[in-house]
Design a protein that fits this description.
Blueprint: E1 18-20, E2 26-30, E3 40-41, E4 48-49, E5 54-57, E6 66-67, E7 72-82, E8 87-96, H1 119-128, H2 141-144, E9 155-160, H3 169-176, H4 178-192, E10 196-202, H5 208-216, E11 222-227, H6 236-244, E12 259-263, H7 264-276, E13 282-289, E14 295-300, H8 305-311, E15 319-324, E16 331-332, E17 346-351, H9 352-356, H10 369-373, H11 380-388, H12 392-397, H13 408-412, H14 419-425
Parallel strand pairs: 1-14, 9-10, 9-12, 10-11, 13-17
Antiparallel strand pairs: 2-8, 3-5, 4-7, 5-6, 7-8, 13-14, 15-16, 15-17
Helix pairs in contact: 1-4, 3-5, 4-7, 11-14
The structure holds iron/sulfur cluster (SF4) (2 copies).
One iron/sulfur cluster binds at residues 364-370, 381, 412-415, 417, 419.
Amino acid sequence: MPYEHIKEVKDQARITSIETFPDPKTAIVILNQHSGKPLSSIVAVGDSVAIGQKIASSKERISSPVHSPISGEVVKIGTIYNHCFETFADAIFIENDDKKTKAKEFSPISESEIGKTSSADLLDIIHEAGIIGLGGAGFPTHIKLSPPAEFPIKNLVVNATEGEPYDTADERVLIEKTANLLRGIKVIKKILGNPKVTIATKVSKAEAIPKLQEVFGNEPDTTVFAGHFRYQQGDASILQKALFGYETPPTKRSYEMGCIVQNVATINAVANAVFEGEPLISRVVTFNGDIAQPKNLLVKIGTPISGIFNKNNIDMTGIGQVVVGGVMMGHAIPTTEAPITKRSSSIIAFSESKCKNAQKQTACIHCSKCISACPVKLHPILIYSAIMKPDFDKAEKLWNKDCIGCGTCSYVCPSRIPLSSTIMASR
Ligand code: SF4
Ligand code: SF4
């Protein structure tokens, strides 16, 4: 099938250790980086803030607060491009005072205290630390880890497949933070009532697999599984089918089938929050594409993307397009003044010449490649045509809401029709 041949461009980045990127002079923290209810700022221009201080929140349960990544002064509350929702959005601008003053909002607990800490308290830490799904979806993790009691969780799947063709941030976390992942998994197991654990990775992650086997090999009810996973199998329901052989019906969620899938970076963030008292103020980001030195950076949330190009001495006149969050599921951004968010797993730069030579969109030739390639058995071209009419009732009848935004239909389309982004925007 065509989508089996999505080429990985990871050779250099996957062997490059995580490098800590310097704190920005001005951090731009977007309020709404999660999927859920919107946040309101709880700071004002002129306020001093400390590292890790909560700066925006909501009383609604399905929400996730944001924190200051640096210490300094709030100099502006304005708008900036938010790649999470492909729109301009409210953000808090903080000027760095270089004092690195830390907030004392979080008290870490030790591993020995996990047994006597209630699940509710652990969920509260995860919520207060602003942890959301870092694999791309951005759903608040405390909600994902609170399935209704009538659905006992039998399987926790650690999604270590990282299918995005240019992304290696999770792979480096697997290699360099393996022991921290074990700590995070223990927290999640406690919350979910001790399910079996399957760590699902790809055979191509040659350095990570022995590390995982070394750290998790003697853990009870824990399996490390390295498979020949195709790109889209990072999706929760597809991964679940590949591992356990059953599908989640269109109207159901994975938890209703007794399974919860958690991404590697999210588990790392859970461990940092619980054991280090560190809210989600930084993440590992892959910097890759048509650049001399692909790498993985530990970047503060709110760092302007332009700063990453500047620091790496990259002349922007040679760059035609910058994609954030993966070339398949992410988005091209209109400005590199946009900041890193919790959902910025990667920054991929494409050269001006490559973009100029890119094939332009033409009419559908009815080849049906998009239909054959869709991993959730949708008819992308029919949904796209309904949306373009516009006939949203028809798009819904064609199950547009089941689209997982994997980008495969757009990738295989010989007419370069923007199927995936159009379908995702209609949901
Ligand atoms: S329709 Fe959605 S799920 Fe199907 S291939 Fe396109 S983006 Fe992926
Ligand atoms: S892959 Fe593109 S050209 Fe082929 S049927 Fe789908 S939309 Fe049309």
